[in-house]
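Propose amino acids for all 510 sites.
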């Protein structure tokens, strides 16, 4: 069922069993888990079914610290959310990503990789991925031309990625959600405030507003906030009538530990002879699976580095490509043109005989840093909510890790006489912790309502429930305690399905 919140009577009271705020990958995945159940689900979307500039304006904000993308373009504000410009990259987290690592401050989750294992295959279905297989040998069995570089797997291994179509949740799941008798989708219903009971131990209702001047109240027994990492934190911080620092923020953790993936060109690989390196090749909307070079847990521990992967692009193509940080603009149409031009350049530059030189491009997890954070600005949006301010701050560990990754890769390729690795200039001085102008992120927002068993160290518990509030849950990558190397979408969908299962058990037991 679909209701446009602009067209119902002002100050309406909307009631249900479960209220989900946000209809991106997390919000829709949560709603799908309650299809055909006895529970009335209220799914709130701030925008409509298509991109609208005035809705995007609600996501405007300021950035400080490390150079970053315009906030209003980094997330899409309509049904389907940011899956509208998702590239479809998917891979699982590694076991080490969940562990406490003594060289990574604030690392460690209250769950393990094994806790997510049952949910990854279910997430595959939502994302239209292939078989739940991330073993390089499986894919090589499908195509003998997927030959590996000659690395020692105990040091450098091939981490496999699968690629979604990419699935646009707003297109694929629109009819399913709208036709579901127990799911009530309200569009143009922006949540502007969360209200708890007198001692703030449970949420009683949320307030929704829209640009048509309407305001409504939504009441439910369970609330799931699935807006995205920046907006999740913004909403908790702005809901400060009862708790001056914001809901769930007794220990000043909401908004802190904002993490991105550093996505940055880092080195060159020069091979002894040309090679197409088909195993490592990616072509937009064609490639089903490929490998990136990854560092084993053993070597991460030995060199005390963060987790990261290296992808390979022919150097004569890569050297003419602008940095991603310069391609992503506040003009969504122009951004699409920039990436279409990049994709065409990749196709035009391909050589059947292969290439001898490749650019090594790194996707590196960011160390959890409490100074990297989301706060509220004094300026408010058109609905009266303080705008978000993002301070993105890196640490010396990121640059140390980049050097470590290519030291290991360089040593391993050198041992085989298969080639050599050449570091880019900005990585050569081990005492230099500055970052070049072309440093960028992957548009992967994580960590602002981080998971921790100890309420003083995080915002949500192992079930994504806000500490101290019985019926308030956060969904999505904002719950990540560390970022890992892969893009966050596959894992956030798996984590959301796990959250939905937890709520099913909880409401059934009542």
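Proposal:
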């Amino acid at each position: 069922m679909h209701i446009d919140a602009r067209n119902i009577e002002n100050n309406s009271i909307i009631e249900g069993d479960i209220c989900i705020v946000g209809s991106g990958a997390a919000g829709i995945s949560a709603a799908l888990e309650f299809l055909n159940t006895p529970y009335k689900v209220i799914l709130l979307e701030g925008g409509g079914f298509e991109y609208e500039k005035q809705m995007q304006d609600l996501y405007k904000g300021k950035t400080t610290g490390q150079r970053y993308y315009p906030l209003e373009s980094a997330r899409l504000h309509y049904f389907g959310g940011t899956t509208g410009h998702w590239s479809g990259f998917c891979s699982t987290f590694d076991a080490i990503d969940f562990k406490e690592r003594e060289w990574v401050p604030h690392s460690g989750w209250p769950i393990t990789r094994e806790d997510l294992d049952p949910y990854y295959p279910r997430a595959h279905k939502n994302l239209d991925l292939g078989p739940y297989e991330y073993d390089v040998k499986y894919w090589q069995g499908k195509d003998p031309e997927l030959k590996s570089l000659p690395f020692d797997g105990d040091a450098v291994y091939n981490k496999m990625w699968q690629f979604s179509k990419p699935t646009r949740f707003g297109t694929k799941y629109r009819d399913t959600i709208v036709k579901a008798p127990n799911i009530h989708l309200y569009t143009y219903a922006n949540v502007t405030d969360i209200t708890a009971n007198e001692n703030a131990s449970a949420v009683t209702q949320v307030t929704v507003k829209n640009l048509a001047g309407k305001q409504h109240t939504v009441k439910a027994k369970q609330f799931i906030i699935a807006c995205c990492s920046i907006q999740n934190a913004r909403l908790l911080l702005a809901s400060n009538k009862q708790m001056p620092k914001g809901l769930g923020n007794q220990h000043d953790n909401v908004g802190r530990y904002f993490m991105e993936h550093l996505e940055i060109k880092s080195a060159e690989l020069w091979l002894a002879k040309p090679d197409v390196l088909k195993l490592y090749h990616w072509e937009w909307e064609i490639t089903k699976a490929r490998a990136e070079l990854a560092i084993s847990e053993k070597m991460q521990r030995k060199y005390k580095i963060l987790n990261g992967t290296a992808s390979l692009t022919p150097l004569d193509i890569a050297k003419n490509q602008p940095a991603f940080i310069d391609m992503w603009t506040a003009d969504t149409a122009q951004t699409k043109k920039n990436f279409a031009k990049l994709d065409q350049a990749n196709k035009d530059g391909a050589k059947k005989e292969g290439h001898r030189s490749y650019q090594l491009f790194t996707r590196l997890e960011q160390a959890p840093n409490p100074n990297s954070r989301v706060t509220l600005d004094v300026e408010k949006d058109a609905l009266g909510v303080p705008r978000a301010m993002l301070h993105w701050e890196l640490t010396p560990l990121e640059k140390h890790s980049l050097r470590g990754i290519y030291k290991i890769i360089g040593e391993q390729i050198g041992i085989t006489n298969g080639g050599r690795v050449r570091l880019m200039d900005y990585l050569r001085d081990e005492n230099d912790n500055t970052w070049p102008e072309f440093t960028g992120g992957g548009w992967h927002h994580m960590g602002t309502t981080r998971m921790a068993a100890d309420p003083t160290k995080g915002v949500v518990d192992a079930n994504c429930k806000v500490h101290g509030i019985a019926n308030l849950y956060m969904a999505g990558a904002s719950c990540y305690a560390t970022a890992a190397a892969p893009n966050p979408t596959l894992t956030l969908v798996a984590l959301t399905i796990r959250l939905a299962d937890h709520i099913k058990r909880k409401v059934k037991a009542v």
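The mean pLDDT is 94. Residues 255 and 448 are 4 Å apart (CA to CA).
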